[in-house]
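Protocol step 6 of 9: fold each sequence in the batch and record its structure tokens directly after the sequence line. For illustration, a two-sequence batch is reproduced in full.

Sequence one:
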Amino acid sequence: MHLGEFRIGKKLGNGRFGSVYLAQHKESGYIVALKVLRKREALSQGTERSISHEIGIGTQLRHFNLVPLYGWFHDRENVYIVMEYAEAGELYNKVGKVTVQEALEVVLQVGRGLYFLHQHGIVHRDIKPENILCYQHGIYKVGDLGGVGGIGVVGTLDYLAPESIAGSTGGLSVSPISTPVDVWACGVLLYELLEGRPPFERPTREGTLRAISKEGYLRTPKIVEDARVVKILERCLVKRGEERWTIREMVEYLEGAICNIR
């Protein structure tokens, strides 16, 4: 199948408003990922602003640990976003299958990408394994910048920070969201990578929200056996956002902790 300047290959995945395909630029032969977003569904859900955010930030800001966007185009039915192709897929496929050292390396690289965003006044707000792409040679990059900025709740239930929760029974706040929510998400990410499930996951939505706002996480043998993991979780999964590490502090700690082992 052909679409403008691209030959379209296999489907790589599905999202809320479209799909991602492997594609090849006809003239250069360059391999990319092509995200196809259906206009009608995106507009009906009021997400046109998030698409604009993703395009604007992804094409203007460049960092080694952020998935670059090369451009975009549209027709009557769809918006097409041209992105770097990640040959190793989503981090989700590695959840529960990595060593402690590998998990720490992932969180370090994610932290570096987030620190760059924070320096530019941008909060990601939707860090999770599905939004982190894997490359050869142990490289990880943060993608899906559609939720950055703004107010109200953006993100995935299991990764919501306590300040996004109003009350213990599941009401959601509409207060401005700041950088500590990304720090919290890094703690959740580390825990899930090692345990295979998020730390505050419960059978019901209300139970999960209550656990996020009021309960602690289960300190399993895998979690407590490495002092570095214990330290990171203690400093990232603090209920009060102002008491957490900053992303810079987390990155600096991880750089020292990992380098001391190598």
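Sequence two, same batch, same settings:
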Amino acid sequence: MALLDRLISNFPLLADIAAYLHRSVGPIAQGLDQDSEALLEAFKELGDRQWLGLRLGTDYGGQGLSNRDYFLAAALLARYSGALAFLQTQHQSAGGFIATGCNEQLKQGYLPAMVRGQRRVGIGFSHLRRPVPPLRAVPVADGYRLTGEVPWVTGDRLFDEFVGAATLASGEAVFGLLPLRELATSGQITISEPMALAALEVTRTVRVAFDNWLLPSDRVIDIKPTGWIHHSDRQGVLKATSFAFGAAQGAISVMEQALERKNWSQLVPLVESLQAELDQALQHCLDGLMDGATTDAVVNRQRRLRAAAIALAGRCAQAAVATSGGAANGQNHPAQRIYREVLVFTVSGQTPELAGAIVESLAQ
């Protein structure tokens, strides 16, 4: 049994999530990769089970999972559907931002509904990593006027709003709850057509432009200090690694099915070797999650762990393609889907330092 399966078997909530995903999401994963309406329905079903606030406190109806247990839950989701895993993590991250922010009214008005999927909220602040901020904020009497662009927001027509960030003249970043729809009331919001992407296009990623848009004071979530995102990157190196592990486990399942179907018993030891390597890498990452220090030594070690997991996911995905044969080139084949999902998980939340660690791991 894979380590992921052994770990969740002792946690009733995670075992319930795994059973549901195996029964209800796995069989339709290809459809979720291609049909935004089907993806939205699957997302809502997570909300029906109150699984869209796994890290939120029970006061808001959440499950209060630790970082380790949420890591395992995210890996489970990515194992069965990269699209659903990617969409729900935007929403859960938005909930986390609101929960740790300073706006109590938003916490009470949004978080219980977000847990149930009755309010659907994405995120858009990765542009804070850019040396020249594409979205600026100017303080006014009743809030902030925003001008510029958020170049990457996932969830057009799937989410109603998103947690966005704009840079002040001081270098600080103001975070607020912004509409994910075109409006021309208090300024103007313009949304691009969904981007043509090789993977997870179904999640409808767009650019959102603001022209003197008013972010009212009551929609402000928090103000972060200059350089906040770079500090956050050092604190959260391993968090998104869960998706690589989920994709790798899904790829191994595809391999096992292909070998059984083709009666290629001679390759079974090789798949077992990949599983053992994956188990060991997962344990190392779970151990690394427990170290909250942000010293250079700790952060560099965590980058190497994440890079190794991404490289391993790539190898597992390619092995799933190889064992599936020419059928893997079909748009509806799970090996091809997972192969493309690993592309996204390779570059998600990427920094120059992480990119270097990934290339180094691949070159070894």
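Proceed to step 7 once all outputs are recorded. Observation for sequence two: DSSP finds 13 helices and eight strands in the chain.
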